[in-house]
Amino acid sequence: MKILNLYAGIGGNRKLWGDDHEITAVEYKQEIADIYHDFFPKDTMVVGDAHQYLLKHFEEYDFIWSSPPCPTHSLVRKNFVGKNNKPVFPDMKLYEGILFLQHYFKGKFCVENVKSFYKPLVSYQEMENHYFWTNFLISSLKTGKDREHYGTIGVLEDRKGFSLSKYKNVDKRLALKNCVEPELGKHILDCALGKQKQKSLI
After folding, report:
1. Which of 17, 27, 60, 137 supports an S-S bond with 33, CB 3.0-4.6 Å?
2. In this structure, what CATH number is given to the domain that contains residue 99?
3. Structural domains in the chain (count)
C-alpha cells in the first residue's frame, strides 16, 4: 500500500507500521526530517509544506495520515493563556485538510489532532486524548499507558521508543511530545486495513 504521512515529525505514528508499505513522509523542518529519515531510512522523505503536498499529490496514495499543527486548537493552551501565551486565531488548515480529504480522496484517511477548546466543527472520533477524523471506524483501544506528556526527555524517550541523545540543536522534548503514541498509530492503520474488529465507534 502507498501511504502518505503528513506533518510527520520524528515518526511517532509511523513507528510500528513496519516496512511492508511504500511510505512517503512530509516534514517542513529539515532537522526533524533528518531524525525521521534516520529512524525510517526506507521511507521517501520530503522536506516541505505538507498542506501543499497533499493538494498536489493526494491521488497517488492509498492511505493518508495527517497530523497538522495543534497548539492553536489545544484546550491545554487555552487554559494557560497569560503573559507569555496570548490568544491566537485557530489555524483553519486543520479543517481545510479534513474537508478536502472527505470530498476528494478515494482511499482511507486519518487526520489527528489534540482535544480542542471548542466543539470540533466536523464530526470526529475521540480516543486516548486525541481527536480523529477518518472515513472508517476505529475500534476502541485502551493502551493502559500514561502519555507522560509532562515527563522529562528521558521519560518521553522511553514512552515513545525513540532515543534522541545523538541529536543537537533540536527541541527534543517538543519533538517527543508531538509524537502520536506508536501503539495508537499502529492500531489505526490496522483498522484502515481491516485487521481490527470494529466493535465500537469511539
Report:
1. 27
2. 3.40.50.150
3. 1
